[in-house]
Write a structure and sequence with these properties.
There is one protein chain. By secondary structure, the chain is an alpha/beta fold. The chain has a single domain (9-278), classed as Alpha/Beta hydrolase fold, catalytic domain (Rossmann fold). It is built from 13 helices and ten strands. It has helices spanning 33-39, 66-78, 91-102, 120-131, 135-138, 142-146, 155-163, 173-183, 198-207, 212-218, 239-248, 264-267, 269-278, and strands at 9-11, 18-22, 44-48, 84-89, 107-113, 151-152, 184-186, 192-194, 226-231, 253-257.
Length: 295
Amino acid sequence: MELAEALPYEDFGGEGQVLHFCHANGYPPGAYRALLTGLSAGYHVLAMHMRPLWPGSQPDAISDWRPLASDLVRFLDQQGLSSVVGWGHSMGAVTTLRLALRQPERFQALVLIDPVLFPKRYTYLWELIYRLGLGYRLHPLAGSALRRRGTFDSQAAMLANYRRKAVFRYMSDAALQDYIEALGCPLPGGRVELCYSSSWEARIYITGLRADLELWRDLPQLKPPLLIIRGAASDTFWEVTGRLVLRQLPSARVITIPEASHLVALERPLEIMAAAREQGFLPTIANYSTPRLTV
């Protein structure tokens, strides 16, 4: 994609203040339909397609996640946006945080859902693994991503296959359907293929963590208010990581949603909106019933 070309995005509607949402690795914006249409009750919700969804983009073009934040700058500039409300999940949460540390004027506030952020010792370890060329072999998710089935006879067959996977155990049928519709691109004859390539998914996995020391270094200077929402069963943003964030940035807030995993953004959209409202990060959204939350 040429630099002058407009970056693709999805508009989930709403009026007023712009809320930008950055999606996770392997989860296109449409997968978050329940959450993003809910947020559009109080905001104009936009979601840029991140680099793995661009036509013709090459996985080898990145060696860490810094370019993803530069892509977000480019998108906001193309749309003439500044001082937006920044939301993100997983890879998208880290991308939003990285840009907020570089250019805090871009955001009024941040809501990061289960960001891919680990204690610093894991960053050092992964850097060694990456430099030894062992990333694809040793990352617990990269190999499975490369082996993932890429086509299905129908959307219904894809849904039935995914419904059996343990990773989606907390997702409702409606949420899983949204994910299937976002991820499955139609082929002739009713077949579908994954819109998000396995090579890109694996590349994102192995290039994560590599630039995270700068996030920890700069976190105490973060200016926009920060709320982090995690799933209690998350294998990506641990309780200990939350404590480390609060030690670095005492003004931040970390909320845990029970019976939810790293995919909490798709599993518990109402609870996420309720948590954000209770913490003062969604002042214009209707008052949802209060779920069981822990700090």
